[in-house]
Design goal:
By secondary structure, the chain is α/β, with parallel strands linked by helices. The protein has helices spanning 2-12, 15-26, 36-51, 56-74, 78-85, 90-121, 126-144, 168-192, 196-213, 243-258, 281-293, 340-349, 386-389, 413-428, 474-478, 481-495; strands at 220-221, 226-232, 264-266, 297-306, 309-318, 324-326, 368-370, 373-379, 398-403, 432-436, 442-444, 450-453, 460-466, 469-470. The mean pLDDT is 91.
């Protein structure tokens, strides 16, 4: 018994387990918890281990375990979409989810290897240069490889409460990820009492400047606010596309629309479970008439059909001429099937996912001129890409995101997604309006703060006012290049031995 206890205690002391647990702790910095110090401390923990690694392999293993804990705790909700709503068997869904997390952890594993290599080959500071640079580099690679999955970039953990969020309108989320990781490296130096005074001064200065930047106004209001109504139908995902429920859903949204007396009324992504050419003329006419009576417009989530192509779209109707936005950044495996000829059998035999073979819209969309505003629309997953959102700026005066997060049930996913929308508002200096099927439906101000929101899994209409803004934040002007320059500057300081 004593031997078993000693062995168990030994396992508890293993660095790989510590790194795995640190990865799980880092999730507490993100929504819905917003405890950003947890992410800072977790990164400080893994950076401490990496700076003491004696081989590149050891550094890679430590970082991989951190990433495994990070992603298992952060994106476990993939299982819900595969099993609960996609119909995939328990074991296969569990294996697929763990495999996805294990794949994502490879990026942090590579980060560990690169961190060690950069520190030993180029003799740059492991805590202030190589660890922050390689972490953000791998975040960026993860954002585009295999169409990208930039979920849980550590810069998001600063929004909206941390002082470092003040840098978001300048450098975007990748630049702030770099500042977060630098802060974590400084914390390790302070804890070790290595150059403690300089590290403390640098850390305090970094955060004081960020706090001052949070007070700046990067955009200015244009015109009077407009009244808005954001609809949350709360249609269960497992019945959403059943033909016998379609008419009930149509009636529900029609009633919600005509009950909303707003200049801009927004329905969620794919709110109407029919094709655009199947909408009854009388149905659209009633919506348009109601919108005109309010001197405004209605945005309708719908699937468009055109020459055997299907698009995830938002259709406007009302006072302004009818306009359409088509989603361009589709979700792999959810809205299109990569390597369809090789893995199409998985969808045929194991999954029940409608709309898994959509077409892409334009990658250079223009804002919709509706309700007296220039509205930049993005659908669901698209607003995790700040560099794509700014394509419609500075012309756009207002941001709109429509989503259907019902695929992920009562999990962390909807709130994590909401925090990304908060970041987009802060990056652009624009208000963000979010209309979702089951949550999180919210009105976000130009500083990334939530003004109003609806509870998850409730049927309701969120009403309020939205102010249009003009102007251009530095991030809108230079996109991710600002983060790149910041990274090169950091490397240059490390190369010249000034860090």
């Amino acid at each position: 018994m004593v031997k078993i206890s000693n062995r168990f205690y030994k396992y508890l002391q293993h660095p790989l387990l510590h790194c795995f647990l640190l990865g799980g702790l880092a999730i507490m910095g993100f929504a819905p918890f917003y405890l950003y110090p947890c992410t800072l401390l977790a990164l400080a923990g893994i950076f401490n281990y990496l700076s003491r690694a004696t081989t590149a392999k050891q550094a890679a293993c430590l970082a991989y375990c951190f990433g495994l804990g990070f992603f298992c705790a952060g994106v476990y909700w993939i299982y819900i979409s595969l099993h609960d709503f996609g119909g995939m068997p328990f074991l296969m869904a569990s294996f697929a989810t763990f495999s996805f997390c294990a794949f994502l952890a490879l990026f942090t594993g590579c980060m560990g290897w690169l961190c060690y290599t950069l520190s030993t080959k180029f003799k740059v500071h492991p805590l202030l240069v190589s660890a922050p640079l390689t972490w953000v580099l791998l975040e960026w690679v993860r954002s585009w490889i295999f169409t990208g999955f930039p979920w849980l970039n550590v810069g998001y953990s600063t929004v909206p409460n941390s002082a470092l969020a003040g840098y978001v309108p300048i450098f975007g989320v990748y630049g702030v990820s770099l500042l977060v990781t630098i802060s974590s490296g400084l914390l390790v130096l302070i804890a070790r009492q290595e150059t403690r005074r300089k590290a403390m001064i640098t850390l305090v200065a970094l955060w004081l400047v960020g706090g001052a930047l949070k007070q700046m106004e990067w955009s200015k209001a244009q015109g009077a606010p407009i009244s808005v109504a954001l609809l949350q139908g709360n249609i269960a995902q497992d019945i959403k596309w059943q033909p016998e429920v379609a008419q009930q859903t149509l009636d529900q949204y029609l009633e919600m629309i005509v009950s909303a007396n707003a200049q801009l009324t927004i329905t969620p992504e794919t709110a109407l479970p029919i094709l655009s050419n199947q909408i009854p003329d009388e149905y659209l006419k009633r919506i348009k008439t109601h919108a005109q009576e309010n001197h405004g417009d209605v945005l309708i989530g719908i699937i468009e059909s055109e020459q055997d192509n299907y698009y995830n779209s938002m259709l406007s109707t009302g006072t302004a001429p009818t306009q359409t936005y088509r989603k361009s950044h589709l979700v792999p495996f959810g809205e299109f099937i990569p390597l369809k000829s090789a893995i199409g059998w998985i969808y045929r035999d194991w999954l029940n996912m409608p709309l898994s073979d959509l077409s892409r819209g334009s990658t250079q969309p223009k804002p919709m001129k509706i309700a007296g505003q220039q509205v930049a629309i993005n659908i669901c997953y698209e607003d995790v890409y700040g560099e794509e959102i700014i394509r419609q700026l500075p012309q756009a005066t207002l941001l709109v995101n429509t989503s259907n997060m019902a695929w992920f049930g009562d999990s962390l996913a909807p709130d994590q997604h909401l925090q990304m929308s908060q970041t987009r508002a802060l990056e652009t200096g624009r208000m963000m309006l979010r209309a979702t099927n089951t949550g999180a439906t919210a009105i976000i101000d130009s500083h990334g703060h939530i003004i109003k929101r609806l509870p998850h899994f409730t049927n309701g209409t969120l009403t309020g006012e939205a102010q249009g803004y003009i102007g251009k934040t530095p991030y809108v002007g230079w996109g991710n290049w600002g983060a790149l320059v910041l990274g090169l500057l950091l490397f240059g300081l490390g190369w010249t031995r000034r860090l």
